[in-house]
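SAMPLE LOG
Freezer: B-3
Tube label: C17
Construct: single chain, 113 aa
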Amino acid sequence: MIAELVPGAKVEAVSTKNGWTFCEYIPCEWGQGYIKTEYLTIDTELSGEYRNISNGRVRVRKEPHGKGKQCGWAQKGKTVTVSAVQQDKDGGLWGWTGKGWVDMRYFEREVRE
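STRUCTURE (predicted):
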């Protein structure tokens, strides 16, 4: 371990491979290095209301990846509130709904006028 980051520390992800993300601008002496992808989240600018646009219901999972244990469903056409987004080791985005994680491939941001 080179450095320990505090929750909320911001880094810039450069690349992801095999579950690790190479980051720059890490607030430590070296300024760059690898961080396990599962520990990173994406800025909350992606938070908001999202509608399920899939052809059916979408699994809600306890962990932000496709093998995470299922803990519920997001029904077709329904809206969920996503408060945080995290990238899995394969580069997929997962949204935290407060009840679990959903695969963001099946959701579209709601635009309010």
